[in-house]
Design a protein that fits this description.
Largest sheet: 2 strands, parallel
Radius of gyration: 24 Å
Distance between the termini: 60 Å
Number of strands: 6
Helix content: 40-55%
Length: about 180
């Protein structure tokens, strides 16, 4: 016995599959493999066949950074609150938050890191900046990232001691967005 919900769902499912088939044939995407599999070769694991079978894009010779993919972990001098291991206290790197950071210094160091990590001037693969110190959207800095919000509010409160909490929050968001755009362009 087939329930009514099944008979209603089947045409909807078939219609969805038909629509998805058109989307899938029109849209394509590439899968990039950026795992240092060169380390696995010594144990007899070869990923070349898997990558060829599934058309996965990977660096030549299984390198971590290479001709197809280059991930840069925290390049330059992005503003950040970092933990001092000896005391477990936070200290400010380059102002701590984007609105206090020195963009010129960041870009100079970023260029040096880029030249070191991706020395091929003709690199045509994808470059990924892996940055995890804070989140670009102000309201998403909660939990372990709460100190970024707290510092941002303190900076604005020091500048405008008589503003309301709501006004301070709006100003923090506005200033951070503006400076963040400069750091990310």
């Amino acid at each position: 016995m087939v329930s009514r919900s099944t008979t209603v769902s089947l045409p909807a499912a078939l219609w969805t599959l038909l629509l998805l088939q058109n989307v899938i044939t029109i849209k394509s995407f590439e899968v990039y493999w950026n795992i240092p599999t060169f380390m696995c070769n010594q144990f007899g694991f070869d990923f070349g066949g898997v990558n060829r079978t599934y058309s996965v894009v990977q660096n030549s010779n299984d390198t971590f950074r290479g001709n197809a993919v280059a991930i840069l972990y925290d390049p330059g001098k992005f503003p950040a609150l970092l933990e001092k291991p000896s005391t477990k206290t936070l200290y400010k790197r380059n102002g701590g938050v984007p609105q206090e950071g020195n963009l010129t210094e960041h870009l100079e160091i970023f260029q040096r890191h880029l030249d070191e990590l991706v020395p091929d001037r003709n690199f045509s693969g994808i470059g990924i900046i892996d940055f995890e110190s804070w989140r670009p959207i102000y309201r998403q800095n909660f939990g372990s990232l709460q100190p970024y919000k707290d510092l941002s509010v303190k900076i604005e409160k020091d500048r405008h001691p008589y503003w309301s909490a709501g006004h301070l929050e709006r100003e923090v968001g506005s200033r951070k967005r503006h400076r963040l755009t400069l750091f990310n362009e």
